[in-house]
Write a structure and sequence with these properties.
Blueprint lengths: L1 H29 L3 E5 L9 H8 L2 H4 L3 E5 L4 H10 L4 E2 L4 H8 L4 E6 L6 E5 L13 E4 L5 H12 L9 E4 L3 H10 L4 E5 L2 H7 L3 E5 L10 E5 H6 L1 H20 L1 H12 L3 H11 L11 H15 L7 H4 L3 H7 L2
Parallel strand pairs: 1-2, 1-3, 6-7, 6-8
Antiparallel strand pairs: 3-10, 4-10, 5-8, 5-9
Helix pairs in contact: 2-10, 2-11, 7-8, 11-12
């Protein structure tokens, strides 16, 4: 009888302890610093460093609760960043610079790519830029990097995008691909893996935008409150994201497997997407000072301003640089 009571109290104590420890764990989970991150699309290869960091537990290892807001248009993403609705954004291109020029206290603190990864595909009846006259051309959101690149490429090929074609703003690459497949547009700007789908579906590649040096598609932009008042959290966030970037850059199979679930594409398409995109990614989250100047030159021309902007007003890679030495 005595031993039964002892066993009862041991079981009771063990139960209470388990409940207590579970509550402590839940409280610890709830008390983790929250980082809200906006990304344009769940199917963008340029969001992969974030997704890998999430999937592999890198953010959890840093004690962070990273909450991703997907499908955010570039302009909206920057507005959210300025207002403090999110702490970080993947949007690091012309929209971010335009906000900085207007006085927004933003910084680009990490870069994923140093080359653009966009293409212009058309239906079979449109075999040259001359054939685009009078055509409907699908584009991303107005003012986004992809949209500005499209207009630059059209102008270089003697197509006046204001008069010769009708630009239809559709949004993400998957929506653009759907519009091209349905015939709603005659041509569309696409990024990976949409261009591969277009290629396999018999559409024609009119142009690649890869030669347009200075267009940034992925990275981390943040606002002054996060940058200065929660710097320790930002360091941890960037450290985990940098780990995700390195995995993407160095591990083809693991990255492709995550793409399958994240981007909802077949494994073979994921491998092709990886092979096409990996070369445009950097490995250390930074770009050189010379390249920063080229980026600013491209973005300022794309915005249509003659203003000169010092590099340190836009870029600050000091945290990422310090992480590389740890």
């Amino acid at each position: 009888m005595f031993s039964s009571k002892i066993r009862f109290w041991i079981r009771t104590f063990a139960f209470i302890l388990a409940v207590y420890l579970t509550a402590l764990f839940a409280e610890a989970q709830d008390s983790r610093p929250v980082v809200r991150l906006s990304i344009p699309s769940a199917s963008s290869v340029f969001s992969m460093p974030f997704q890998i960091a999430q999937e592999q537990g890198f953010y959890r290892d840093e004690g962070l609760d990273v909450r991703v807001v997907q499908g955010v248009k570039t302009a909206t993403s920057i507005q959210m960043l300025v207002s403090g609705t999110v702490e970080a954004s993947q949007t690091v291109g012309t929209t971010t610079l335009a906000a900085i020029l207007q006085g927004a206290p933003l910084k680009v603190v990490m870069i994923f790519n140093d080359k653009p990864s966009y293409w212009l595909y058309s239906k079979k009846g449109v075999r040259s830029f001359a054939d685009l006259k009078g055509a409907k051309v699908g584009s991303f959101t107005p003012g986004s990097t992809g949209d500005r690149l499209l207009k630059i490429v059209l102008e270089k090929n003697r197509v006046d995008w204001k008069k010769d074609v009708t630009i239809v703003y559709i949004g993400t690459s998957e929506l653009l691909m759907a519009a091209l497949l349905s015939g709603s547009v005659d041509a569309a700007a696409l990024t990976l893996p949409g261009n591969l789908v277009a290629q396999d579906s018999g559409f024609l590649e009119l142009a690649s935008f890869e030669s347009e040096v200075g267009a940034l598609t992925g990275g981390v932009a943040t606002g002054e409150p996060f940058y200065s008042k929660r710097r320790d959290v930002l360091v941890r966030f960037l450290r985990a994201t940098l780990k995700g970037l390195k995995v993407f850059k160095n591990n083809r199979e693991r990255s492709a497997k995550i793409m399958v679930s994240y981007m909802n594409i077949p494994y073979e398409t994921a491998l092709r997407t990886y092979d096409a995109s990996s070369p445009v990614f950097v490995s250390d989250g930074m770009i050189s000072e010379d390249f920063q100047e080229k980026v600013l030159d491209f973005q300022l021309r794309a915005i249509g301003t003659d203003k000169k902007v010092p590099r340190d007003k836009v870029f600050d890679f000091s945290i990422v640089k310090s992480l590389g030495t740890n």
